[in-house]
Design goal:
Blueprint (H helix, E strand, L loop, with lengths): L7 H4 E3 L3 H13 L12 H7 L8 H11 L1 H8 L3 E5 L5 H14 L1 E7 L3 H17 L4 E8 L20 E5 L10 H11 L5 E7 L4 H9 L2 H11 L6 E5 L4 E6 L2 E7 L3 H9 L3 E9 L2 E8 L3
Parallel strand pairs: 1-4, 2-3, 2-5, 3-4, 5-6
Antiparallel strand pairs: 6-11, 7-8, 8-9, 10-11
Helix pairs in contact: 3-10, 6-7
Bound molecules: S-adenosylmethionine.
């Protein structure tokens, strides 16, 4: 168990590198479907897209939902290890840790991301959080790898104070998986009885408006084209069958982001033994808390 002020090389396990990510890109091009981590490799594009003035509102609406329901969420998440899948800017993630420090001056955090700069910046954010909460302790591990490669040891502190974990994925990150079963099988494998899953999702309430927010945003075009290292035009579509915004580069599915029908979603997660505890909605976004009741 390492405290957040430990040297960074002791805090973060680096298992993925440029070569392995390049191989995944080539595989994606060969099989005509690009995997989600590729869009974040040029992280500067993501920082620009999520800058507040931009129409990409997901993290900010999730922040609003978290602020509006602070007391209830604080008590639901209290006394659990926090495991984050996908950090990006890390704003919603930071708020959850801040609540722990306000409650108990103590937090245990595991952050997983394929892009190492996001984890490194998150370490700095958490160090800053510690300065603003004197005498508090943050136990941290960063795992710079794909969600697909996680194993149980990555997600476990031997001297943990907590029996259970809350697995957390904000920013509609789960929507970047072409096969939804894939990401839920990963959660199912990593969760034990009594663990919770907190997800931020984008709902499919306004497909046309949502599509135009992607298609008319030149920053998104840049994010997608940079990730496949190609130049040209993208063909943006709303795939009604799968409720998905898609960007096609010729016959390559270069980007996709699933949007959810809340009712269908809550039925779908039951297949993975996940029961809804609480759902919070604002406009076309939702934060959903689920629990694994059985092993
Ligand atoms: C849509 S962003 C969301 C970031 C943050 N949670 C937020 O709400 O702003 C997705 C994040 O997950 C990471 N990511 C996407 N697919 C991944 C994968 N398969 N394995 C590991 N990290 C992944 C990206 O690098 C990025 O930081």
């Amino acid at each position: 168990m390492k405290e957040i002020s430990s040297p960074i090389n002791e805090l973060v396990i680096n298992r993925i590198n440029k070569k392995l990510l390049d191989e995944r890109l080539l595989k994606g091009i060969k099989f005509k479907s690009i995997t989600g981590e590729q869009w974040f490799r040029n992280y500067d594009n993501w920082y620009r897209i999520t800058a507040f003035a931009n129409p990409h509102k997901t993290p900010y609406t999730e922040l609003k939902i978290l602020f509006d329901n602070e007391n209830e969420l604080k008590s639901l998440l209290n006394n659990t290890l926090k495991i984050f899948y996908g950090i990006g800017m890390g704003e919603t993630e930071t708020l959850i840790i801040k609540w722990d420090l306000e409650n108990t001056k103590y937090s245990e955090v595991i952050a997983v991301d394929a892009i190492d700069i996001f984890i490194k910046n998150f370490v700095q954010i958490l160090r800053n959080l510690k300065y603003s909460h004197p005498n508090s302790e943050i136990i941290f591990r960063g795992v710079n790898d794909l969600f697909e490669n996680l194993n149980k040891d990555d997600l476990f502190f031997s001297e943990s104070k907590f029996e259970n974990a809350t697995h957390i994925s904000f920013g509609n990150t789960i929507g970047n998986f072409e096969q939804q079963k894939e990401i839920f099988t990963i959660f199912q494998k990593n969760m034990k009885k009594g663990d919770q899953l907190l997800l931020g999702i984008h709902l499919n309430k306004f497909p046309e408006k949502t599509l135009s927010e992607y298609a008319n945003n030149t920053l998104f075009k840049k994010l997608v084209l940079n990730s496949i290292k190609l130049e040209g035009e993208l063909n943006w579509k709303y795939n009604k069958h799968d409720a998905r915004v898609e960007a096609w580069f010729g016959d390559i599915l270069a980007f996709q982001s699933k949007k959810y029908d809340l009712k269908k979603f809550l039925k779908f997660v039951k297949e993975f033994g996940l029961n809804p505890i609480k759902t919070f909605e604002h406009q076309e976004f939702a934060v959903v808390l689920l629990k694994k009741e059985n092993q």
